[in-house]
From TrEMBL:
EC number: 4.3.1.17
Broadest EC class assigned to this enzyme: lyase
GO BP field: gluconeogenesis
Name the record gives this protein: L-serine dehydratase
């Protein structure tokens, strides 16, 4: 595993933005916005020579970018839109007419960009990451400026050639890069998990404790708004599949079966489907840790708030525990479906959800059961493929969020049964296996829609 330590903010992991895919929508939007900013800072003579902007998409961005709305996200970013403040309805209207172009400022002039300037390249591209995009400012046939970006899952992007910020250049009071190191820090400093994570977050972001708590509350509110919208919205989802929304039907069924022992699971399924269906429709969701897995944590936190009646302080503590697990997977494997398959997305979300539930039932966070719950959840997602039909985040993605939440709940039950200390496999070990499994998995099963369930579309 990587021996450096984690310097990711909770609010970089939990990001607000439009669906349906953090790696295909939020990441490309951020990359395009960054390119726009760089164009604004070019020498005037270069700006004056420019006559076009071209975008080249490779790997999974090319294979499933149309279904994920990558082209719309790029245009939005070039126009200066930011994920959290994007109007999802306005985003969906972009590029509906292939002849429409959109103005991008380059110095004191504008260059129009439309669908003809976005190229979905099917040829192999030599890149260290599966999701690669190259943006070029050109003058006739000459390239004036070129930037290469990698969308690495969860809305995180890397620009080629950008100096890496090494862990030792960022200061956190309690550094860790593995679960073993995290546990050692807790022991050495006699800290609770909440105290350690809060201290690191405050050091990383410069926010006060009250500001961190306030932002956690905002993130939970964004999640729960997505659930509530999804419980009300009926009809079919965008795209050629014409998939009908199920969340409102399940929610009504759960209310009618409130005295049944099954109603609890139906409520949970309804909440997870609701947020996932909002994501599939391009609505505003929270990456948890990705948009494709943005139904698991919202569903579980909504259940925890409205059925278990946990207070805000407890929900915040659960969110911090969930973030710690997401950090460890991102740092030592990947949360990208294009890198890990769906075990990197829903598998990680399920582990985060199991940690959330486990922390919520404890007055003081005991790390053993939290680790065991997360390990169990990941272990039983190993090898899960990412093979969306038509490139849409719909089948199997939406139902898979509900299944991931149910697995999270069961992992929590197993870990809190009093036998957490009997767990033979550590979280660090299972993340190591996860990384190796993702590396060995055929590219056809990693967000390219070239195999598996994606091929069943012809039978639908």
């Amino acid at each position: 595993m990587d021996t450096s330590f984690i310097t990711t903010s909770v609010f970089d992991l939990f990001k607000v933005g439009p669906g349906p895919s953090s790696s295909h929508t939020i990441g490309p939007m951020k990359a395009a916005f960054d390119f726009r900013q760089r164009l604004a800072n070019l020498p005037v003579e270069q700006q004056q020579q420019a006559d076009a902007i071209h975008i080249f998409l490779y790997g999974s961005l090319s294979a499933t970018g149309k279904g994920h709305g990558t082209d719309r996200a790029i245009v939005a970013g070039l126009m200066g839109w930011q994920p959290e403040t994007t109007d999802p309805n306005a985003l969906l209207k972009l590029l509906r007419d292939p002849t429409t172009t959109y103005p991008v400022p380059v110095g004191d002039r504008t260059i129009n960009v439309g669908s003809h300037q976005i190229h979905f390249e099917r040829k192999r591209y030599d890149s260290p990451y599966a999701n690669t995009m190259v943006l070029k400012l050109t003058s006739s046939e000459a390239t004036l400026v070129e930037e290469e970006y990698y969308s690495i899952g969860g809305g995180f992007i890397i620009r080629k050639g950008e100096p890496e910020v090494h862990a030792d250049q960022q200061t956190v009071p309690y550094p860790y890069g593995t679960m073993a190191a995290l546990k050692q820090q807790l022991t050495d400093h006699n800290l609770t998990l909440d105290e350690l994570l809060m201290a690191n977050e405050m050091a990383l972001t410069g926010r006060s404790r009250a500001e961190v708590n306030g932002r956690l509350d905002q993130i939970l509110d964004f999640m729960h708004k997505a659930v509530r919208r999804g419980l009300k919205h009926k009809g079919t989802l965008p795209g050629s599949i014409k998939l009908s929304r199920k969340a409102p039907i399940l929610f009504q069924q759960a209310k009618e079966m409130s005295q049944s022992t099954d109603s609890f699971l139906i409520f949970l399924n309804a909440y997870c489907l609701a947020a996932s269906e909002e994501n599939a429709a391009g609505g505003i969701v929270v990456t948890a840790p990705t948009s494709g897995a943005s139904g698991v944590i919202p569903g579980l936190t909504y259940l925890a708030k409205h059925h278990f009646h946990y207070d805000r302080a407890t929900l915040r503590s659960g969110m911090l525990a969930a973030a710690a697990i997401g950090f460890l997977v991102k740092h030592n494997a990947s949360i990208s479906g294009a890198e890990m398959g769906c075990m990197g997305e829903v598998g990680t979300a399920s582990a985060m959800g199991a940690a959330f539930l486990t922390r919520c039932v404890q007055n003081q966070a005991t790390i053993g059961p939290i680790e065991a719950a997360a390990e169990i959840a990941i272990e039983h997602h190993l090898g899960m493929t990412c093979d969306p039909i038509g490139g849409y985040v719909q089948i199997p993605c939406i139902e898979r969020n509900a299944m991931g939440a149910v697995k999270a709940y069961n992992a929590f039950l197993l870990a809190t049964s009093g036998a957490a200390s009997f767990q033979k496999i550590s979280l660090d070990a299972v993340i190591k296996v996860m990384k190796a499994t993702g590396r060995d998995m055929s590219t056809k099963y990693k967000e390219t829609s070239e195999a598996g369930l994606a091929l069943s579309a012809t039978e639908c």
